Amino acid sequence: MNTAKYVLKRVLFMLLTFFIIISICFILIRLLPNETATMFGKDMQLVLQSRYRQGLTDINGNPIPLMQQYVNFVRNTLIGGNWGTSEKLYFGQDCFQIFLSKLPATVLVNLYSSLMAVPLGLMLGIYAALKKNKWQDHLISTGVMVMVSVPSYVYAFLVQYLLCFKLKLFPVVMEAGTNYFSWAMFKSMLPAVLSLSFSSIAGYARYTRAELTEVLTSEYLLLARTKGLTRAQTTVRHALRNAMVPIFPSIISEVIYVLSGSIIIENIFVVPGVGSLYINSITALDYNFFLLLSAFYTLIGLTAGIVVDISYGIIDPRIRMGSKK
């Protein structure tokens, strides 16, 4: 019961936080100068109709008071789900439909990156912990420090130059189209996937090594060894299980970090995803797209916090969410 109340409380706070952030974004955007409908020439009527349906102007195209715009935004967009149409990037097309068409590319690039980074990072971290203070540990730790210190977009330029331009193993940019599960499309995704994976692998390896090293030197593992268990048995049965309590939530948060960081990577490799759409909407001052994508990334970040907290109780039943004792 305490867990259910805790989750419900966190969800309500998440929705409140989301509402406040998006409200601030809306107000700040509407305070910026907006292009008049007459600047769109022959498409002026389409713009006027779109803004009227969103509750931003009256039927004659005149802006209504800001607070009334805000009330209409809450009713039509946050509740009704109408994010309006694009006025710059995809003129006259529904923003939400364009967003849905771009989402698979972003999800797949980040999914492939996580599928590559998680096992490699965990294996390197476990191996370094088992070889603590030996040359293997020093080699992995040095590589991890270098990989963590370098931003992902630097890896992107290196991958483009070495693997795409010099060795010609992959195309420089992602292949166009929506055939996401073809070999050609997968091959064109790999440069972006590799660029996102390096920092994640280093992060997983560093965190896993730190947690597992601490667990391996704990007293209860020494007691297990004195009772006759081999080092492999104590590592697999006890050390890894207890070390995963803080490691698993870090994997979730790292996946969210990769999703946010892919905004730049998508733009470099011309991935037709949400990240590049976000940057283009800012450049083009397409406010409807900017609000929709800001809401998307905000909701992802807030949801991740709840999932991370709940995962502690799932991994270790001894942890009780919302308990006062």
What would you note in describing this structure?
The chain has eleven helices and no strands. With 325 residues, it is mostly helical. The model has no long low-confidence stretch (mean pLDDT 82). It is flat, with a radius of gyration of 25 Å. The protein has helices at residues 2-31, 44-53, 66-79, 95-130, 135-149, 152-166, 183-216, 219-226, 231-268, 274-284, 287-315. The two termini are 14 Å apart. Helix content is 74%, strand content 0%. Helix 5 packs across helix 7 (183-216), helix 9 (231-268) runs antiparallel to helix 11 (287-315) and helix 10 (274-284) runs antiparallel to helix 11 (287-315).
Distance linking N and C termini: 14 Å
Q: Report helical residue fraction.
A: over 70%
Written as H for each helix and E for each strand, in order along the chain, the element string is HHHHHHHHHHH
Question: Any idea what the shape is?
Answer: flat
Q: Note the main sheet.
A: none
Radius of gyration, CA atoms, in whole angstroms: 25 Å
Oligomer: single chain
Number of helices: 11
Please give a quick description of this structure:
The protein has 325 residues and is mainly alpha-helical. Helices cover 74% and strands 0% of the residues.
